[in-house]
Amino acid sequence: MIEATLCFVLRDRGDGRPDDAAGAPNATDEVLLIEKRRGLGEGWYNGPGGKLEGDETPRECAVRETREEVGLELDPAALEKAGELTFLLDGAVHTRCHVYRTGTFAGEPRPSDEARPEWVPIDEVPYDQMWEDDRLWLPGVLEGRTVAGEFRFAGGRPLDEAEFVDHELEWDASFRAVESD
Ligand SMILES: CNc1ncnc2c1ncn2[C@@H]1O[C@H](COP(=O)(O)OP(=O)(O)OP(=O)(O)O)[C@@H](O)[C@H]1O
User: Fold this and answer.
1) Can you tell me the ipTM of this complex?
2) Which residues are paired to 74 by β-bridges?
3) Is the CB of 136 within 6 Å of ligand 1?
4) Neighbours of 69 (CB within 10 A)
5) Which of 5, 30, 31, 165 could be disulfide-bonded to 49 (CB atoms 3.0-4.6 Å)?
6) 95 lines ligand 1 (CB under 6 A)
7) Mean pLDDT, rounded, for 131-154
8) 27-68: per-residue pLDDT in tens?
9) Among 36, 90, 95, which is best to mutate for testing ligand 1, by the most ligand atoms less than 8 A from CB?
10) pLDDT at 20
């Protein structure tokens, strides 16, 4: 089983409209996506992220992967846990993915061997060029919600060539109990 992370960095495009009282981003906000240049999901858009290394926590992994892939420095304490996604392939858990969201970062995104970064308005996210499950959970995550999801794929490896079969989602899940993440 692979344990991995995804991190969605949001910025305000500056129309002066405040986010709502709950802190949910408004429709003019932009999210930093990457076009993945190699490995699983090559050619597709996603957030920065990747597999946990050594004994790091998911939160530390999200900060490291974002630094390695696009050169942004994140404040680990300002990462909000937004999702826990389980991807099953042919009935077995393939990947557990911790999803984070943050509006706090330092630096300018720059491309790397692994990723080409791009700020994208949240109402223009290219769901047709992403993992098929993303359209089910990412819009809510970009609106400030939390989600727990299970996604079933079938047809053998690699996962990015398997068929997306079905899913279950639980919205507004609470991750406080596991916030050591
Ligand atoms: C099945 N539906 C899915 N929907 C959305 N995102 C998915 C995903 N399945 C995997 N992911 C994410 O894709 C990244 C893999 O990245 P990553 O570990 O870099 O893979 P890659 O094989 O390139 O590894 P190395 O770069 O060699 O470590 C990692 O963030 C992981 O959470």
Assistant:
1) 0.92
2) 105
3) no
4) 26
5) 5
6) yes
7) 97
8) 569 999 999 999 999 999 999 999 999 999 999 999 999 999
9) 95
10) 62
The pLDDT value recorded for residue 175 is: 81
Write the pLDDT tens digit of every residue in 94-137: 999 999 999 999 999 999 999 999 999 999 999 999 999 999 99
Testing ligand 1's pocket by substitution, the residue of 7, 8, 51, 85 carrying the most ligand atoms inside 8 A of its CB is 51
- Cα dihedral sign, 112-116-122-126: negative
51 Cα: distance to centroid of ligand 1 (angstroms): 7
The residue with tokens 């299970």 is: 150
CA nearest neighbour of 64 among 135, 147, 5, 13? 5
**Across-strand partners of 91?**
none
Please spell the DSSP secondary structure of 55-117, one letter per residue.
T--HHHHHHHHHHHHH--EE-GGGPEEEEEEEEEETTEEEEEEEEEEES-EES-----SSEEE
What gap in Å lies between CA 36 and CA 38, rounded to an integer?
6
Using a cut of 0.90, tell me whether the model's pTM lies above it. yes
In this structure, which amino acid lies at residue 33? L
Superfamily of chain region 2-9+26-178: Nucleoside Triphosphate Pyrophosphohydrolase (3.90.79.10)
Indicate whether 171 pLDDT > 80: yes
